[in-house]
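Students often ask what a 'structure token' actually looks like in practice. Rather than answer in the abstract, let us consider Leucine-rich repeat-containing protein 29, a protein of 315 residues. Its sequence is given first.
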Amino acid sequence: MAESLPLEILTYILSFLPLPDQKEASLVSRAWYSAAQNALREQSGLISLDLSGCLELADGVLLAVSCSLQRLQHLSMKKLHRLTEAGCKALGGLRELRSLDMAECCLVSGQELARALGSARGAPPPLASLSLAHCSSLKPHPELEDQSLGPKELSPKPQSPSLLRLQDLKELDLTACSKLTDASLTKVLQFPQLRRLSLSLLPAFTDRGLVAVARGCPSVEHVVLSHCSCLTDEGWAQAASSWPRLQHLNMSSCSQLTEQTLDTIGQACKQLRVLDVAMCPGITMAAVRRFQAQLPHVTCVQSRFVGGADLTLTL
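Now compare that with the structural description of the same chain:
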């Protein structure tokens, strides 16, 4: 008689059994197996999982997580060096995911990740935080590079898989994703709600990319651009006005910047509280002091080795 029950009813009945009994019930038939699996998923209240540094884990872990922990909201998989883009397909099953950390997952590339997280099939998860730091294989979706070469602009809501569909993003870390270029960043970084952004150690990131990112992410409050050696005063002259809410800015080791950029930021970013210009040889201590006088509410200026000096101003 139980065999004739709808799957939903059978799942509801089995959900009252303790876990060992659910496992026994799953052996009765295929229908009972499906019901027992559904009951197990519905009972799982885990919303946060940290698998960082579990070096032996591979693509199968994502399949297991997406099947058994569908209510998961926070997932960290730092340094899972065996995880590949093939495993990312399973991320599409985590529809409640709010933060994802895949830093140093060096075999993950952008195309399959975009397909999993921003698929046109259904709404993407309400992802608010995404870290792909040190993913050296991360490349933009080929569609982005192709369109960057022509006059046609990318649709704000692309029909093909794209990270652009993750419009709930508030934090994004692309540190040391060294294969990303101005062309891809210009197309991808259009997140009006983004608050925190890290683009450190991007050797191909230039003024063009800076201006486009500033216009595409106007609500940013915390920006890290350290070791972006192609950025110049001209780029900041165009970008600074797009970030009036900026509070924390790290420009350490940006070797081409001069005191002109400090003047620009001082005029455009009145809410700034923390500034890091360490290892910027084109900025002098005199310029740092003028900036501090211009914005007295700035509580910390990291200025080690600017203009050959080794100083940190903290108020």
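One point worth highlighting: Confidence is low (pLDDT under 50) at residues 143-156. Ask yourself how you might have guessed this from the sequence alone, and why that guess would often be unreliable.
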